[in-house]
Amino acid sequence: MAQISITILGLDRASTSVGLALRRYTKAGGAHTFDVVGYEPNQRDIEKTAQSSGAVDRTERSLTTAVKDRDLIIMAMPYEETRSTYQLMGKHLRDGAVILDFSPLKRPSMQWAQEFLSAQQHWIGATPIINPAYLFQVEQGAAQAKADLFDQSSLILTPSATCAKEAVDLAFSFAAILGSKPRFLDPLEHDTFLGMTEGLPALLGVALFAQLQSNPAWHDLQWFTNSTFGTLTRPLFDTHPDALREEWLGNRDVLTRAIDEMVTTLQSVRQVVAANDSDAVDALLDKTSRGYEAWINHRYHADWDASATEMPRVEAGHSFMGALLGTRLANRFFGGKKDEK
User: Fold this and answer.
1) Which residues contact 177 (CB under 8 A, 6 or more apart)?
2) Residue 325 vs residues 94, 121, 318: alpha-carbon distances, Å
3) Please, where are the H alpha helices in 224-317?
4) pLDDT number for residue 45
5) CATH of the structural domain 2-185+311-334, one choice from 3.40.50.300, 3.40.50.720, 3.40.50.11270, 3.90.550.10
6) Measured distance CA(143)–CA(279) in Å, rounded
7) In this predicted structure, what is the pLDDT of residue 1?
8) For 72, which of 157, 158, 169, 245 is 20 to 30 Å away at the CA?
């Protein structure tokens, strides 16, 4: 049994759940153990939550100490701090280190990795699609982390065109350790999909709040707010304004098209509502409701296609992997000889 050193930069629900999933894997008799370090700048309460849950073995107050000589880095820093984190940590990562980037956008992160990391430090974008059991739980803090957050789901991997195959194989196997099924997307395709399913809903929530806040009746309106309003506008609670700005501008080509399409849709809905066209409204709601029911069923059963149930086995390719990533890391993730010192 080998021990793998992992650092989690930024402790939110998804990244902290990584630590819990690793602990579950080890307790179930997995082939590896993990030394997990957490780093959350200026948030001692979050660090304590992650440590008390067992998601991390310890925390570090220094970013450079947290990443030095580590095998695998989970990048989940607040998005407004992601570029500066790459700039700083690139000088302290060891050759062969692999970075799994959980940032919301992959194209900017890939560019920062190319700018600040060496050719011997390997970047792969990773976006977890969560267990459908938690689909309607919107809290994103470390306290909501779950060991099974990645079960019945996928880990979307977005390697760059120049990413070493062995690093991709490593990420593929790590997804399985978490209990997830790896799937691959081009970074541009990833950001396009995410812009429509994550970016646009967040933008609509902000726009709604801005609209109502400027309404002359806002003093009274603000009291007529329950779960529907709170859920839609929650990005303003969970996400720093600087991060929202970076996400919107970093994916502006996708978002602007999505906004245009949403405006067209809203105009169509407005037209039939204003015309008191009951048949048209019924048709819209019936079609949408049936589509939503089909989506929910697919999402809960994870039956998108037959290939989701079987994934090809990845061979480590130890000789080339050892030369590229270092023999110790190759053996740690794919089994084999005892760690070489």
Assistant:
1) 21, 22, 25, 30, 32
2) 10, 9, 10
3) 227-232, 235-238, 241-250, 252-274, 278-301
4) 86
5) 3.40.50.720
6) 46
7) 57
8) 245
